[in-house]
Amino acid sequence: MSASVETLDRAMDALVDRVGSTLAETGAEFPYFADPETGEWETTADGNWCGGHWVGLLWLAAEHADDPAATDRFETAARAHTETMAAFIPQDSMFCGMNFHHAGFVGYDATGDRRPFALGLEGADATVAAFDERARQVPLGGLAIRGPEQFRGPESDHGPPGDRLGAVDAVHTSLPVLWRAFEETGDTRFRDVAVSHADRHLDWYAREDGSTWHHAVFDGDTGALERQYNELAIRDDTCWARGQGWHVAGLARAYAETGARRYLRAVETSVDYHRAHAPADGVPRWDYAAPDDEPRDTSAATLVAYGLALLPVEPATAHLRAYGRELLATLVADYLVNDADAPNRGAVLQGCFNRPGRYADDNELLWTNYYLAATVDAVRARR
Known about the structure:
With about 375 residues, the protein is mainly alpha-helical. The protein has a single domain, classed as Glycosyltransferase. It has 13 helices and six strands. The chain has a three-stranded antiparallel sheet with strand order 2-1-6. The chain has a three-stranded antiparallel sheet with strand order 3-4-5, with no helix packed on it. A hairpin with a 6-residue loop joins strand 4 and strand 5. The longest helix has 22 residues.
């Protein structure tokens, strides 16, 4: 069942409230994850891998705020955080494209200002420069992701080097800035890199049963695949739920941009896997094979709903878009704090960042709030 227009309106109001309370608490810092009981935020000074989500939330809040003073407050904060994040994030990181997309092109859409537009193009150029033509991958790169020591691989303190390590995330974290840059400029190198990466993604990360690998290590000289492994799943034969969400969101966007049925087929197969292995409400455990007493991950479900909201409106996608709306209704009804008296009204609870490392494994996560707000916004726009 889909959420009503009134329900989605109330959800957006709550999410905007949460941006306001978060900004009041964190100031010039970037929120990262919050305690589910107190609502207090752990922060970073520069946004680390996900700062663009905070900028994107600020722009969404500015658009939907109910008074000019709030709009001005959110816009001012969005601009200031954009400057901080852009000065920090390494341009050889697969996260550069995502962050420059949110801070750049989303900022441009909100304001018409050509300065963030230029930042979006800068992110697209950096993503093309980072692309490894032999492996046909935008690799993980050099960003030190904030988290436990376990976070970079099973065989050493920091795992395989980032210049020859691919991740399932990159189909979403790296490609949207390229699709948009091609749309804006007509420069085919942006589209060509996006398509090449997405096609290699199908080869290396998509399994026949619809589940996904987390990482692929490739030879630095030839680009040949050396091995695949799961860093944030239980085992190599299981599936990390948020990785599945990134995969669905990235390939849904690839289909929307190209109309290539290979991407839609992969989305269908992966959504079928998600539905078969998640609990009945569609919000999976952090790994689809995790036992019932393990944490859920709302960020995984939100990414699936977000990806399905990106699909074009056509008969071939109707069943997927309908499921995405059902999933959105569940997230809004059962996982979004919407009590008017709650200090963390607008928080999305039960997010699991890194269960193997026991790090923020049952928390409010910044990116979950962003993708839920973006999904609500997209679905409302189509009503």
